[in-house]
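step=encode ok
step=design start
structure_in=
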């Protein structure tokens, strides 16, 4: 088989590098076989976990079946959260650039969920002066577009974002730290948290003791479990409808161990957040599976909260305190990024405890560290990863059909993907949820004239 370079890259972009390399090199390319086998295994689990037969039956007002009636069944919204961090305002602006427009259009096309950020240092830059206006504007725009919303983070023991400068420069007793924690949680519970679906209440607890900081002193004096339990209890009392998340970048056994300690102490948290910033190279399949399975053993929903996969080379001795201006995306790594993200999304979607996956930077524009982790470039042009994920989320994992009812009035779809569905019959529309555990089986009486 002879391909020129352009044909080779076009095939990889469309089919995936594992498929193409297995064709190109035959049985010699064992890595391709492994990735392809993992995807096939994930797809089999997805079919069992995320699909079920969907059934609609049309009856006239006398209860008789209506045959040969056209029924449109539209997958309107995923129940699984496919999201990204929302760092910039994507509202329409007069005289906006083409890049602004593309960033907004592709964000709305791909995602149904978003993370808004409110690092305490920037959220309360001066005492009692909160950056509510900008945050509420972001939330309003996302809610207008029916996004599931998560917030990040409430409490985080890491400079430079965790404490406001005006507070950090004070000599604080443990009791004073608690008073300020109480004040910010009270304020946000009044104005922000009721608008959100979930919040990272504590961020990076596993390494919380690593920093010389008032938060660290508080935990040392009164115990990590005690403080975490106290403030998660307060959060849930103030925000009973908002999910409380504990989030961490640690992916080894220390994380499930500390979560298990919290469970034994009856700490009230709803979900587990797992970061996956892969600046040092993509996680192995074994690491992905082990991480998911270890956290799944705790029995709570899991969210991949911050996913970063490079479309450029890794940088040795990466400095996390700076923003790189010359970290470039390149075609070869873009194709690897596309293949890896497709594998990761298939794998995540195939596990029952995973409820969502959020890219930390969906675009290279404004990406953390200046890293090429976006699935759009700085101009808003899709990389191969965007094309691949769009195909999964908006085509493969959606069920959209138009069919006629049979002689008994039934319209049945085998293996319809979970989601919120719109059932359209003439000028009538019905909206219903469909899950694998509670499949949609709807009998609809309609006024039918022959």
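sequence_out=
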């Amino acid at each position: 088989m002879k391909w020129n370079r352009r044909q080779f890259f076009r095939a990889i972009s469309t089919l995936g590098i594992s498929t193409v390399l297995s064709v190109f090199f035959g049985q010699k390319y064992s890595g391709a076989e492994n990735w392809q086998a993992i995807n096939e295994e994930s797809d089999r689990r997805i079919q069992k976990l995320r699909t079920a037969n969907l059934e609609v039956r049309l009856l006239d007002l006398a209860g008789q079946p209506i045959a040969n009636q056209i029924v449109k069944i539209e997958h309107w919204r995923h129940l699984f959260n496919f999201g990204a961090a929302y760092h910039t305002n994507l509202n329409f602006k007069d005289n906006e650039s083409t890049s602004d427009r593309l960033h907004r259009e592709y964000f709305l096309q791909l995602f149904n969920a978003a993370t808004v950020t409110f690092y305490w240092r920037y959220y309360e830059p001066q005492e009692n002066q909160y950056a509510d206006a900008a945050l509420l504007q972001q939330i309003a725009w996302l809610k207008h577009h029916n996004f599931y919303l998560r917030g990040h983070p409430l409490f985080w023991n890491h400079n430079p974002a965790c404490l406001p400068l005006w507070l950090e420069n004070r000599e604080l007793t443990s009791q004073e730290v608690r008073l300020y924690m109480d004040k910010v949680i009270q304020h946000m519970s009044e104005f922000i948290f009721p608008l959100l679906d979930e919040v990272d209440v504590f961020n990076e607890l596993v390494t919380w003791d690593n920093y010389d900081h008032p938060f660290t002193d508080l935990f040392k004096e009164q115990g990590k479990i005690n403080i975490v339990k106290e403030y998660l209890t307060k959060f849930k009392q103030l925000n009973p409808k908002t999910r409380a998340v504990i989030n961490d970048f640690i992916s080894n056994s220390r994380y499930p161990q500390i979560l298990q300690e919290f469970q034994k102490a009856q700490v009230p948290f709803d979900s587990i957040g797992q970061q996956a910033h892969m600046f040092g190279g993509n996680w192995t399949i074994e690491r992905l599976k082990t991480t998911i399975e270890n956290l799944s053993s705790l029995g709570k929903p899991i969210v991949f909260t911050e996913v970063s996969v490079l479309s450029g080379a890794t940088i040795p001795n990466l400095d996390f305190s700076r923003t790189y201006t010359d970290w470039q995306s390149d075609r070869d790594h873009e194709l690897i990024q596309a293949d890896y993200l497709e594998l990761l999304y298939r794998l995540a979607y195939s596990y029952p405890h995973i409820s969502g996956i959020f890219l930390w930077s969906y675009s290279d524009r404004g990406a953390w560290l200046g890293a090429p982790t976006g699935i759009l470039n700085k101009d808003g042009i899709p990389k191969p990863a965007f094309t691949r994920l769009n195909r999964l989320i908006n085509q493969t994992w959606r069920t959209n059909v138009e069919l006629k009812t049979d002689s008994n009035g039934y319209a049945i779809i085998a293996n319809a993907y979970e989601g919120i569905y719109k059932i359209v019959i003439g000028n009538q529309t019905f909206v219903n949820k469909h899950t694998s555990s509670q499949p949609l089986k709807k009998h609809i009486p309609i006024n039918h004239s022959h």
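step=design ok
step=annotate ok -> Residues 276 and 307 are 5 Å apart (CA to CA).
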